[in-house]
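Sequence only, no structure available. Ideas?
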Amino acid sequence: MSGAGDPQGLRCTLEALPSGRALEFVAFGDSRTGLADWPLAPGGVRHGAQGRPEILHFAPGRWLLPEPDASSCAAVAAAAAADTGTAVEVEGKWMAMDLSGPDAARLLSSSLDVAAVLESRDCAAVVLFDCPAVLAASSAGYRIYVKASYAADFMAAVSRVV
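Reply:
I predicted one. Tokens follow.
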């Protein structure tokens, strides 16, 4: 989706990404044992070699691992073995999308103050156009994980704004 051809439209593109395996890790209480190389600050993100988000600390005691690689799976297994928390397979729960272009922030600002939300964090659990999502800044704009049951509504809302 893009408004690039419309002089009144926003210059940005929303691209749905192929969905794959995903995990959520939920910590037991305040335990941090076994999470040494995880992003522990609220809204912290660990990025992989390609720059894509690997582990997102999107809510208190909760991390999202979209398309975890072997090292991320090993980190989850180690944290679970240390009795720090539990991992839940959430394949199909989240739909990943990239929002890029010079007007990406402006598009999101019609739903929330994205600059204020991401001012002191790399990701946040948010509601965009009435759709629950996890929003993360990326080099090209934003990586958005929308709950899959809201994905069609989210894309329709974006197309109305663009």
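The longest strand covers residues 131-138.
Hope that gets you unstuck.
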